[in-house]
Amino acid sequence: MPQSVPDIRILADAEELSRTAAQEFSRRAAAAARSRGRFVVALSGGTTPRRLYVLLAGDGGPAWRDRIPWKAMHVFWTDERCVSPDSPDSNFRAARELMLSRVPVPSDQIHPIHGEDPDAGRAARRYGRELRSFFSLAPGRRPRFDLVLLGVGQDGHVASIFPGSHATGERRRLVVAVRPRRSAVALPATGRITLTLPVINSAACVLVLVTGPEKAEIARAVLAGRRGDLPARLVSPSRGDLIWMLDREAARLL
Ligand code: 6PG
User: Fold this and answer.
1) How far does the centroid of ligand 1 lie from the alpha carbon of residue 157, in Å?
2) Cα dihedral 165→85→22→27 (10° resolution)
3) Which of 5, 46, 51, 79 could potentially form a cystine with 194 if both were Cys, beta carbons 3.0 to 4.6 Å apart?
4) Contact 191 CB / ligand 1 (< 6 Å)
5) Whole-angstrom Cα distance, residue 138 to residue 118?
6) Cβ 65 under 6 angstroms from ligand 1
């Protein structure tokens, strides 16, 4: 069972969900910058947060854009595909095009995962070192992001932590490489690099965004079911908030 009780918010549709997420994002960004002088976020890939990124960058009016302390923002990613940063599959590219190239975040505060490295294990170790250095972590300690954004796959994966993959059980490392398809485990066709559950669960807030009818079954399995091995069910910040935002279609079976 997840330890954290999720704050479940059901919104009319993907647009209302994106606007509510933008509200939450800007509120947390402003509060973190006010109290600690910086706001550290891990962005997810996938299609679900795309509208959120566009809204944050100012689409449809200055509402959120003007409230976000962009100069105090430090951007990391929850996961990346093993592709070049120019690839249409790159999570970095999506966030850059939709948001980061349109807002004044200092470029040295943007921390992409180097998915283009032909050695994914090396890229994962490099990102782990980057986290340790950025957060000044003593050995054995974990980074505390102000906000981690997640989507959920229809198989229950979050970031690139897929059901049955070794990443699901990782307890020690902060970042791991996930290899393409192997035996019975349906891994993606390209390798991935992902933050691990101990990192996600150390965040001050994890915000999970779920939209569309095709996510209704997995939303029920995670939020109302019994399968404890689903990565999405293992998301449970030990000292933070867990917020699930679903649109009506995704929440249909709850
Ligand atoms: C990625 C992810 C992944 C994603 C889910 C949901 O790189 O694809 O970070 O975990 O969030 O697969 O994807 P959708 O938002 O496209 O449904």
Assistant:
1) 8
2) 90
3) 79
4) no
5) 29
6) no
Q: Amino acid letter at 94?
A: A
Q: Residue holding tokens 């566009």? A: 54
One digit per residue, pLDDT tens: the chain, 254 residues? 445 789 999 999 999 999 999 999 999 999 999 999 999 999 999 999 999 999 999 987 778 899 999 999 999 999 999 999 999 999 999 999 999 999 999 999 999 999 999 999 999 999 999 999 999 999 999 999 999 999 999 999 999 999 999 999 999 999 999 987 665 566 777 899 999 999 999 999 999 999 999 999 999 999 988 777 899 999 999 999 999 999 999 999 99
Candidate of 41, 79, 149 to mutate for ligand 1, largest count of ligand atoms within 8 Å of Cβ:
79
What residue type is assigned to position 125 of the chain?
Answer: R
Kindly state the tokens that stand for 239: 């000292």
